[in-house]
Structure prediction request, 135 residues.
Amino acid sequence: MDFGINTTPTADGEGLVLAVDGEFDIAATEEFRRPAQEAITGRRPLIVDVTACSFLDSSGLRAILQVHAALQDGNGPAVPMAVVIGDSPAGRLLSLTEVDKRLSVVATREEADEWLASAWKPNGKLGASSKTSAA
Prediction:
C-alpha cells in the first residue's frame, strides 16, 4: 500500500496543491489531512490532484469531502477547491458517486489553475463561475 503526497503552492502562490500518489485509502487519510489542514486554517485555495492516484476508496473520498466542507464551513468566506482527475481511476469513483457534481472537478492542473484564477477574488469571495464542473 504505497501512498505519497506532495505539497506545492498553486501557480499564483496564493493556494496549495496536494498531489496524491498511490493508494488513497483509510491508511492514508491522516497523511492527507495534515497538509490539507494548512489550507483550511489559512483559508487558502486548494487543488487536490489525484491524477497519480491508483486507488481511491470511500475513506479517501470522505477525506476529500471533509476538507471541501471545512473550506465552505461558514466561519469565513468560502474558499475554492478543485480536484484534478486526469485519467486516474479516482475520477471514475467521483463520477459514480456523483461527487463530481458537488466539487469542481477538472482534467488537468492547468484547468484547475485557470478555474482558481477565475473563481478566487482578492476580497475572499468566490466568483460566479465557482460551481462549474468538468470531467
In short: The chain has one domain: 3-131. The radius of gyration is 13 Å. The helical segments are 29-42, 58-71, 89-96, 109-119.
